[in-house]
């Protein structure tokens, strides 16, 4: 039985046989991330890190999708004054970029994804240590057509092994499939429809047979290099403040109004 960490929590946590399952449960919004979901996922990852009975975690999303990314209405449809006060679309205490490096024990996390894995959800999936995807799963760096830029996700894909392919999907913002991602070495294992969780749990069980500290040494080193790369990218792109541009505002308004975007101005 799944149990939430508190009443109204948007993330479920369960540990059995040394494997924790962490499930996003904002399914009525296709697990789009608002501040509350980010905070609840951070709490679940802390619980996993501190759980002496858990050696590996499997992260998945309930409902029809792993995650469709940031909740546009709650995080991107802000006023200029709000963006300037917060320093961007994400609240300072609900920043998804910090989820996997606030660790003490450095245990591995496997993503088991299906449906859609978009934007912020894509970033989270590729920051986890291994990724299992159902056939037909659709990925997209939505930040590119939205006007926020896909540099960080380009860096993640490049780190995970996709070079020219990673550059293509970061610059075009096109959808790409689990099959394409697997061919590029981005997806650890392909699963049949409805089987991503089962395949990920089997993979987690294989990992849990090893000495825990041996496994954690690899996880710690991998995440250190990812964090270093993302910090370097942020140093290049954060000063651009793309969330204050006219093109970003037009893309968000077009999304909310369900209309085609007007020609972008480059401003």
TrEMBL record:
GO molecular function: isomerase activity
Family listed: Belongs to the enoyl-CoA hydratase/isomerase family.
Alphabetical list of CDD domains matching this protein: crotonase-like
Presence of keyword Isomerase: yes
UniProt keywords, alphabetically: Isomerase
Protein name: Enoyl-CoA hydratase/isomerase family protein
Organism of this sequence: Pararobbsia silviterrae
């Amino acid at each position: 039985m799944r149990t939430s960490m508190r009443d109204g929590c948007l993330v479920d946590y369960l540990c059995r046989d040394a494997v924790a399952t962490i499930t996003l449960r904002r399914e009525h919004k296709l697990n789009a991330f608002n501040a509350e979901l980010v905070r609840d996922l951070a709490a679940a990852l802390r619980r996993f890190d501190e759980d002496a009975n858990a050696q590996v975690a499997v992260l998945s999303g309930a409902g029809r999708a792993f995650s469709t990314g940031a909740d546009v209405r709650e995080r991107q449809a802000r006023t200029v004054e709000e963006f300037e006060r917060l320093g961007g679309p994400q609240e300072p205490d609900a920043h998804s970029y910090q989820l996997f490096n606030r660790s003490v024990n450095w245990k591995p996390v496997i993503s088991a994804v299906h449906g859609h894995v978009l934007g912020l959800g894509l970033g989270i999936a590729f920051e986890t240590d291994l990724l299992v995807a159902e056939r037909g799963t659709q990925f997209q760096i939505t930040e590119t057509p939205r006007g926020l830029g896909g540099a960080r996700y380009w860096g993640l894909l490049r780190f995970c092994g996709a070079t020219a392919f990673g550059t293509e999907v970061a610059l075009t913002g096109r959808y790409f499939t689990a099959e394409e991602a697997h061919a590029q070495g981005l997806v650890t294992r392909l699963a049949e429809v409805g089987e991503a969780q089962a395949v990920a749990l089997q993979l987690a069980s294989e990992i849990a047979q090893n000495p825990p500290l041996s496994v954690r040494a690899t996880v710690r080193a991998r995440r250190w290099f990812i964090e270093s790369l993302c910090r370097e990218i942020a140093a290049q792109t954060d000063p651009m403040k793309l969330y204050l541009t006219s093109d970003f505002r037009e893309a968000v308004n077009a999304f909310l109004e369900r209309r085609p975007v007007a020609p972008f101005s480059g401003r």
